[in-house]
Amino acid sequence: MDSQQFREFGKAAVDYIADYFDNIKDRPVLPSVKPGYLEDLLPDEAPEHGESWQDVMQDVDQIIMPGITHWHSPNFHAYYPTAHSFPAVVGEMMSAGFGCIGLSWVASPAYTELEVVMMNWLGKLLNLPEEFLNCSEGVGGGVIQGSASEVTFIALLAAKEKMVKDLLEANSPLTEGEIKAKLVAYSSDQSNSSVEKSGLLGSMPMSLLKADKDGKLRGDTLQKAFQEDKAKGLIPCYVVANLGTTPTCAFDDLTELGEVCNKENVWLHVDAAYAGTAFICPEYQHYMKGVELAESFNFNPHKWMLVNFDCSAMWVKNAKYLVEAFNVERIYLKDKHKGLAPEYRHWQISLGRRFRALKLWFVLRIYGVEGLRKHVRDQISLAKYFEEFVVKDERFELCTSSMGLVCFRLKGDDHLTEKLLHVVSERRNIFVIAGHFNGKECIRFAICSRLTQREDVEYAWKEFLAATEQIVSSKAKITCEVTGKKILSAELTKMANHTEKSK
Ligand SMILES: *Cc1c(COP(=O)(O)O)cnc(C)c1O
Fold this sequence. Notes:
Blueprint: H1 3-22, H2 37-41, H3 53-64, H4 86-98, H5 109-125, E1 141-145, H6 148-169, H7 176-182, E2 183-188, H8 193-201, E3 206-209, H9 219-231, E4 235-242, H10 254-263, E5 267-271, E6 296-299, H11 301-304, E7 312-316, H12 320-326, H13 356-392, E8 396-402, E9 405-410, H14 414-427, E10 433-437, E11 440-446, H15 454-471, E12 477-479, E13 486-488, H16 492-502
Parallel strand pairs: 2-3, 2-4, 4-5, 5-6
Antiparallel strand pairs: 1-7, 6-7, 8-9, 9-11, 10-11, 12-13
Helix pairs in contact: 4-13, 5-13, 6-8, 6-12, 9-10, 13-15, 14-15
The structure holds pyridoxal-5'-phosphate.
Residues 80, 147-149, 192, 194, 242, 244, 246, 271, 273-274, 300, 312 line the site of pyridoxal-5'-phosphate (PLP).
Protein name: Aromatic-L-amino-acid decarboxylase
Family: Belongs to the group II decarboxylase family.
Cofactor: pyridoxal 5'-phosphate
């Protein structure tokens, strides 16, 4: 393909994406294809002869698009948002266009240097303590990683390296191997599955401690777990605190956890994957209180900050620990000199690096801080708007409402909420998923798409109402599916239990 054809193909692709966004609302949020649909539509072998880009584009529309879940539909309310914006899409395109691999400073100086500056901009926006920033005098710094999962794992490896070194330096009678076999990590039972995975990957048992009724891991719970494990001869090494848990967007108290960790020389990592974006607004920064007690901090601009996947921002107080864990050359970093660029390959798992800073720069410049704060505040106010509908309808119970996430349920037995979710899912007009709150089934309603507006929230609420009518009449009477009799809603729970048992 020559550059003239690229101009045409590229422009056609941009038009296709722009049209897709202009009309995304008209598409059903979930595809209706069945598993394996694509295999029948594609040839068994790669084409022997090159085809035209026009043919390829046609197949995108006819074969690929039917199998796309529309994450940016205003009716998408599942999981958490995944970021999307046009500036970020162009940033991705240009990064692909340059096609460098930033494995060292000289491999493409702008890659490293823009990342350093972007991580400073971002860190200052969040009001992170200065010692985490590249621009501070010390050994801290920020880096862009691929995902929060990766960051949790990387921080675990660094924590392991640090603990082994600390204990050996303190003349521990144990060998390096013996120390490693005794290390334990902790988080709450509300943490993301990737936290448990990091323990598996890093061969460090991850204890998922019970959170309190508000979904927070408490300091005394952590302290008790440390004591019990130490009594067994184990060595507490790594704790992952949550700012914005996946199930309900609950916030751990960093001061409480940090004090316990600091006392025991345990590495505290903060996972703020989703909610971290809100900290660009001063009114939400109080959730970070105590962050100065942490060794590492992470949030995903690729979730809520309009920077397309992948872009996960990680800061550490002391980059030496990362380099020690990852530098196969084992030439230890001396104290960082001001102005000297970090060799980011020693801060990560892979050798090659993408130019992720470019899309971040585009988004920060084109939206501006003001534009990004407005995005966060608008989305939170949409969640509040939904919350009001839930609270006003006495058939429903609000479980939690935090940031852009509302968790709610039908009053009564879990079967009712399960049924509601089932009916809503069958109707396929909006996409939501189930959650749990204090052992009860709930529905997670997240404001995800940047295109979602008040009318879309109203639409979603009407979907819940219509589905509810099918299972709980507003006049407290429904027609029993089995006997055809009218029954009171109070009896519905009994019914649901009975139906379930008789299955
Ligand atoms: C989404 C999420 C993750 C996982 O993020 P990835 O970048 O996809 O790895 C981890 N922790 C929390 C709290 C999350 O919300």
